[in-house]
Please model this.
Amino acid sequence: MGWTGFAAVFAAFFLTHSLPLRPAVRGPVTALIGARGFGMAYSALSLVMLALLIWAAGQAPFLMLWPQAPWQVTAVQAGMFVVCLVAAFGLGRPNPFSFGGMHNDRFDPARAGIVRHLRHPVLAALGFWALLHMLPNGDLAHVILFGVLGGFGFMGMRLVDRRKRRQMGKEEWMRLRRALAAAPRLQPPLSWTGAVLRVVLAAAVYSALVWLHGPVIGVVVM
Model:
């Protein structure tokens, strides 16, 4: 695959992420399969396109920018468990600041958990995942791949902030931000059982990623 093919897969990746979210597309699809069905379908499509994009980067012309070192692999192995923890503690919890929050009417700034430190934990996990994977993949195609995806995660935070601030209104947005900043940095979890389950989920996802990385991505990580 040449650079043109790699660019075409990149374009398809962003189109499949943006077009389904447009009201003209999302509305009819949601009416047909429901909000939960749309979320599951969109997540599945995103994962398939991400795997295709990673494969395309591996097929692009190889141009080394820096060599791989053992410490880089170790950093990814350790850092990815932290990424899994951030994602596990960020998903499915009240979070009016970001997308994907559940039961946002129950959000308590004084007991915000990970949201006290990361308003957008899922996007942060995406950004950290990309930057970590850039370390041992110093060829041009993978630097472009992970650099763009990392930028997509971190720049997406600002875009979501603007959208949520517009939806909530400036006064409510600032009230919640001030309350969040005033909350204790260290907070006990709302449920110790729930916290343990999220840690177990993070460990299970991490194990699955390690196990599937070889057969799916083609690189054995352990």
Remarks:
- The chain has two domains: 1-61, 63-217.
- The mean pLDDT is 88.
- Residues 63-217 form one domain.
- Residues 42 and 206 are 22 Å apart (CA to CA).
